[in-house]
Specification:
The protein contains nine helices and three strands; from the N terminus they run H-H-H-H-H-H-H-E-E-H-E-H. The termini are far apart.
C-alpha cells in the first residue's frame, strides 16, 4: 500500500466520525429536549460542531492526495497537518465553551433534576464514540496519519463529554445537582488539554520541527551503513505523514563516482527498510575534506 492509498484508507475514518456525529447529535437533541436535560442538549450541539472538525479532516485528506505539481514539488501532504490544526482550534473552542457553561451552572442557584432516561442516552452515546475512537486510532496508527489521529482524539473527547453529562444527570437524581457542572469542568479541561496537544504537534511539524531523539536514531542507521566514514550534517522534517531527510556523509576520497553512488543508495534503502523513510537526499563528500582545506590554507 503506497502513501496515497493509505490516505484514502484514512478517509473511511473521517466518514465514520461524520456519520456517528450526525446520528448522535440528532438523538441527543431530541432526547435532551424531551427529558428536559440541558447537559444532553449541550452535548448534542457539541457534536454538531464536531461534524465541522471531521469535515475539515476529510477535506485535508482529500487535498493531500493531489499529486505533486509545479507549485508543490513535494506534494500536498501537509494538508493533513493543517487539517489537524483546524481540528485543534475547533476542539479548543468546544472546551472553552464547556468551561464557560459549566462555570455559570456551578454558581447558579437554579438547578433541576432531568429525567434519568437522559443519562442512559448519554452513556449510550459515550459507548458509541468510544468504539469510533478505537477504530480511528487503530486506523491512524496503521497508516501513520496525523489528521486522522487528531479526529480520533476528538472522538475520545466527545465520549468523555457524554460521560460527564451522564454523571451530572445521575448526580442530580441523588440530590447532588452540583455534580453536573463539576464533571463538566473536568471534561472541559481534558478537551482543552487534548486540543493543546494537537495544536503543539501540528505547529511543530509545520515549522519544520523534528524530534531530536528520533533524529539520533535515524543518524545511527546512517552511521552503520557500509562505506560511511562520517556524517557532516543531517536534517529531517515532517511532511504530512512522511519524513524528509537531508544528509551529508563523508566517504573514502579514493572511491569512484559509482562506488559513492552505491553508498547513497544503501543509505536510502536502510532508512526505508528500518524506518519507512521514503524521501532521502544524500550528498557525498570526501572524508577528511575539512583537514585538507586547513592544510591548503
Amino acid at each position: 500500500m503506497n502513501q496515497y492509498e493509505e490516505i484514502r484508507q484514512g478517509e473511511k475514518g473521517a466518514w465514520v466520525s461524520i456519520g456517528a456525529y450526525l446520528a448522535l447529535s440528532a438523538i441527543k437533541l431530541v432526547a435532551g429536549y424531551w427529558f428536559a436535560s440541558g447537559a444532553l442538549v449541550a452535548d448534542g450541539f457539541n457534536n454538531l460542531t464536531d461534524i465541522v472538525a471531521s469535515a475539515a479532516v476529510l477535506i485535508g485528506l482529500r487535498i493531500s492526495q493531489k499529486p505533486p505539481d509545479k507549485d508543490h514539488a513535494y506534494g500536498h501532504f501537509r494538508a493533513e497537518t493543517i487539517a489537524a490544526l483546524i481540528a485543534s482550534f475547533i476542539m479548543a473552542t468546544v472546551g472553552i465553551q464547556v468551561l464557560i457553561t459549566a462555570g455559570g451552572s456551578l454558581f447558579s442557584s437554579e438547578r433541576h433534576a432531568p429525567s434519568l432516561s437522559s443519562a442512559w442516552v448519554a452513556l449510550f452515546a459515550a459507548a458509541c464514540m468510544a468504539v469510533v475512537y478505537m477504530y480511528n486510532r487503530r486506523l491512524a496508527n496503521r497508516i501513520n496519519n496525523q489528521a486522522l489521529m487528531a479526529a480520533a482524539k476528538d472522538n475520545l473527547s466527545d465520549a468523555l463529554v457524554s460521560i460527564g453529562a451522564a454523571v451530572g444527570i445521575i448526580g442530580a437524581q441523588f440530590g447532588m445537582p452540583w455534580l453536573d457542572p463539576v464533571a463538566a469542568v473536568v471534561v472541559g479541561l481534558i478537551i482543552c488539554k487534548t486540543a493543546w496537544s494537537i495544536f503543539y504537534s501540528s505547529t511543530h511539524a509545520l515549522t519544520d520541527g523534528f524530534d531530536a531523539n528520533e533524529l539520533s536514531t535515524l543518524r545511527a542507521t546512517v552511521e552503520r551503513t557500509n562505506g560511511v566514514k562520517s556524517i557532516k550534517d543531517m536534517k529531517a522534517r515532517v511532511h504530512g505523514s512522511n519524513v524528509l531527510i537531508d544528509v551529508i556523509v563523508g566517504v573514502d576520497p579514493e572511491l569512484t563516482l559509482i562506488e559513492s553512488h552505491q553508498i547513497s543508495d544503501d543509505i536510502e534503502k536502510q532508512l526505508e527498510h528500518k524506518h519507512n523513510i521514503m524521501s532521502v537526499h544524500v550528498h557525498v563528500e570526501p572524508h577528511g575534506l575539512e583537514k585538507l582545506d586547513e592544510i591548503s590554507k
